[in-house]
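agent> step 3/5: call structure_predict on target 'diguanylate cyclase' (Aliidiomarina haloalkalitolerans).
agent> reason: downstream docking stage needs a structural representation; sequence fetched in step 2, passing through unchanged.
tool.input:
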Amino acid sequence: MINQTLNPQQLQYFFEQLWKQSLNPIWVCKVVPNDFEMVSANEAAMRVDANQIPGALISEILEKGGHAPELISGYFACLETKQMVEFEQRPWVNGKEYLYRTLLVPIINEHGEITHIWGTAHNLTDFLDPQKELLAINQILETKITERTKQLRDAMEKLEQLSDTDELTGLANRRHFNRHLHALMNAGRPFAILFIDIDYFKRYNDHFGHQAGDACLRQVAECLQQFQRQPDDLLSRYGGEEFVMLLPDCPLHEAKEIADAMRSAIHDKRIPHPTNRVPNVDYLTISVGLTLSPAGNHDPDTVLKAADDALYEAKETGRDRVYMIELTSN
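tool.output (status=ok):
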């Protein structure tokens, strides 16, 4: 290929056609104190912003057209560095966002001074809509992931609750009780334990049937729940007709009062139990074994055995009563 140099007339014609026919905005500004004055702008530039008329200051055009501050910053960067500057613009035209890659080129005279800045912008708007679509799709996916994560977390929490709950009574189950007991022991907190047993429950089941027995267990559970004093208290179904209550930071005398109140409340329910062998009673009764663990002084097995021994003594001494065993500090 033979390199050919355009003569001045050809070069002028070339730039005139570029100015008129280009679909991209082209403009020229003159450097003035603390600003830049518009000298000329082609039709493509005017379509983007009709305020780009000769004599208008760039700062005024930006204010009227709502352009981003990157544009004026680009002019000053070009003036300071005397180098070409390239950056992105997102003007709004007739309610639609456009994307332009803007180029500013300094025009330097023979004295090394920038007298004018020539600018052009390449329209990348066709890439903007797909980009927005991808962002929207990404947002939808992120929302769905967040929703699915929440659903999974809720399902896991529900599963954990179910695994810690007695299906029949809705109370905490033995697994939950053991975990709570070990937490109290590890924290070194004192607590009382009440072992509660329904007197002659097998006779009740044999007389009324297992369906009535289940209903009876639910009634007893509902009655005992009212004696939980604070969120840390825990009433659990320990197994069969046996319940257990943990009372953290509860003095022995207060635990004894709660146990007596429980026994009286079951009396007051007057749940018929014609085969109850407690003397002079033909309704449901309970026996309660009680012990207190001083802070961090005993292992769980020792505390549970003491409460179980207290319940055994309550049964052996006639049932329908509270028996207490006090553990001493080590």
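agent> step 4/5: record observation. Residues 125-163 form the longest helix (39 residues).
agent> proceeding.
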